[in-house]
Design brief:
This protein is of the alpha+beta class and 356 residues long. Helix content is 24%, strand content 29%. Strands 1, 8, 9, 10, 11, 12, 13, 14 and 15 form a nine-stranded antiparallel beta sheet that branches. Helix 3 runs antiparallel to helix 9. Bound molecules: fe (ii) ion. Fe (ii) ion binds next to helix 4 and helix 8.
Length: 356
C-alpha cells in the first residue's frame, strides 16, 4: 500500500508551478477517461427494494441490464421479457451465451458482474462494513442521482474532499479549522483519501444536534477504481456519522448513475430519517460543477498540462491506478493482484470505530 501525507498546516508549497505541471503530466500522460471499459467487476446496479416482477432497465458501459424477480428469484438479463417473447435474444460473452448475467444480492443491492462470467466470484464483491450485509434499511435510505459526466470524474470529485468546503459547506463545514490533514493510500484496485480536521466551526445545520460551536471531522472516501464503487464516511464529532455507499455506475462517458444508500449513525432518529433527502440538493450542486467540466475532462487530445496542487494527490493517484488497470486489461490480464482483494475488511480504514 502506498501512502502520501499532506498536512495543510505545513509551510507553503515551495515547488514551482512548472515542476508541478511536469510531475503531474508524467503521472497522467496515458490517462484516457471514458475510452476503456474496465471489466471483471461487480457493479451495484440497483437497490433491491426497487426490484419487482416488472423489469427495471439499467446500463453499465452502454450494455443493457434488466433486473427483475422471477418467482421471487433475482435475475439480471440482457433482454426484456418483451424481447424474449418476440424471440429476440441477446446472448453475449458477458453472459456466456445464456442471456443471464451473474448476480449477487448483498448490502441491499443487486450486484451484477460485468466481464467474463467464468471469473465471477462472490468473494470479489467490495466489502461495505457500514451497511447491513442482508440489506433491510428503510426504503427512503436508498436514493438515486444522475450525473452528466463520466464515472472517472465523479470518482475524482469524491476523492477531492476539500470540494465539500466550497460546494456543501452548509452541510459539512467550511475550510477553517485548527488543523487539517489529508492522507492518500492506494492499492492496485482502490484509492483512499482520509481528511482529519480538528476544531472546525460546526455548520449551522448540525449545530442543534452537535451542541457545540466546533467539532472534529474525519472524512474518508474509498474508491474501487475498476467499478467506481465509492465508500464514504463523514464522522463529525460531536455530531453525526454519515455512512454512505455511493456507486458511480458508468452508463456512458457522459452519464453516471449513483444509486446511493445512507446509513447515518450517532444522531437522532429524526436526523437519520431526514438526512437521505439531502441527496438531491448535494447531487445537484455536484452536477452543477461537473457537468460543464466533462467535455474538457474527456478531451485528452491537447498537450495542455493540468494544473495540480498537492490537494489533488488523490485524484492523480486515481488516474495512475486507473491507467495501470487499463494497461493490464489491454494485455488481457483481468486478474486481481494480491493487494487488491475487494472483499478485504476495511472497517479500520473507513474509521468506523468512533472513540468516545
Ligand atoms: Fe460533492
Amino acid at each position: 500500500m502506498t501512502t502520501t501525507d499532506l498536512s495543510t498546516t505545513a509551510s507553503a508549497d515551495s515547488e514551482s508551478v512548472d515542476n508541478r505541471k511536469n510531475r503531474s503530466a508524467s503521472i497522467t500522460a496515458g490517462f484516457r477517461p471514458g475510452s476503456f471499459a474496465l471489466r471483471d467487476a461487480w457493479f451495484p446496479v440497483l437497490q433491491t427494494v426497487f426490484i419487482g416482477r416488472r423489469p427495471s432497465l439499467r446500463v453499465i458501459h452502454g450494455r443493457p441490464i434488466y433486473l427483475a424477480r422471477e418467482n421471487g428469484v433475482l435475475v439480471a438479463t440482457e433482454d426484456s421479457p418483451r424481447d424474449r417473447d418476440r424471440g429476440r435474444l441477446r446472448a453475449s460473452e458477458f453472459t456466456a451465451g445464456t442471456g443471464r448475467y451473474p448476480v449477487v444480492e448483498r448490502y441491499g443491492y443487486a450486484w451484477v458482474w460485468y466481464g467474463d462470467p467464468a471469473n465471477a466470484s462472490p468473494d470479489l464483491v467490495p466489502r461495505v462494513p457500514h451497511l447491513p450485509e442482508a440489506g433491510g434499511l428503510p426504503r427512503h435510505f436508498h436514493q438515486n442521482v444522475i450525473f452528466d459526466c463520466s464515472y472517472e470524474l465523479i470518482c475524482e470529485n469524491l476523492l477531492d474532499l476539500t470540494h465539500a468546503d466550497f460546494l456543501h459547506s452548509w452541510l459539512t463545514g467550511d475550510p477553517l479549522s485548527e488543523h487539517d490533514e489529508i492522507t492518500v493510500e492506494s492499492t492496485s484496485e482502490t484509492v483512499t483519501m482520509t481528511r482529519t480536521a480538528v476544531g472546525r466551526p460546526t455548520p449551522k445545520i448540525q449545530r442543534g444536534l452537535a451542541k457545540s460551536d466546533t467539532q472534529d471531522a474525519c472524512l474518508v472516501t474509498m474508491v474501487h477504481v475498476r467499478s467506481g464503487v465509492c465508500l464514504l464516511h463523514g464522522d463529525f464529532n460531536p455530531g453525526m456519522s454519515v455512512r454512505m455507499l455511493h456507486p458511480a455506475n458508468p452508463e456512458t462517458p457522459g452519464r453516471t448513475r449513483t444509486p446511493v444508500t445512507y446509513n447515518v449513525q450517532h444522531t437522532t432518529k429524526l436526523a437519520r430519517t431526514v438526512f437521505p433527502f439531502s441527496t438531491h440538493i448535494v447531487g445537484g450542486q455536484d452536477n452543477w460543477a461537473v457537468r460543464p467540466q466533462n467535455p474538457l475532462y474527456l478531451d485528452r487530445s491537447t498537450d495542455e498540462k493540468d494544473m495540480n496542487s498537492r490537494f489533488d494527490a488523490a485524484g492523480l493517484r486515481f488516474r495512475k491506478v486507473h491507467q495501470e488497470l487499463v494497461d493490464r486489461q489491454r494485455r488481457g490480464d483481468y486478474s486481481y493482484l494480491a493487494d487488491g482483494d475487494p472483499g478485504r475488511d476495511v472497517t479500520e480504514q473507513m474509521r468506523l470505530e468512533r472513540p468516545r
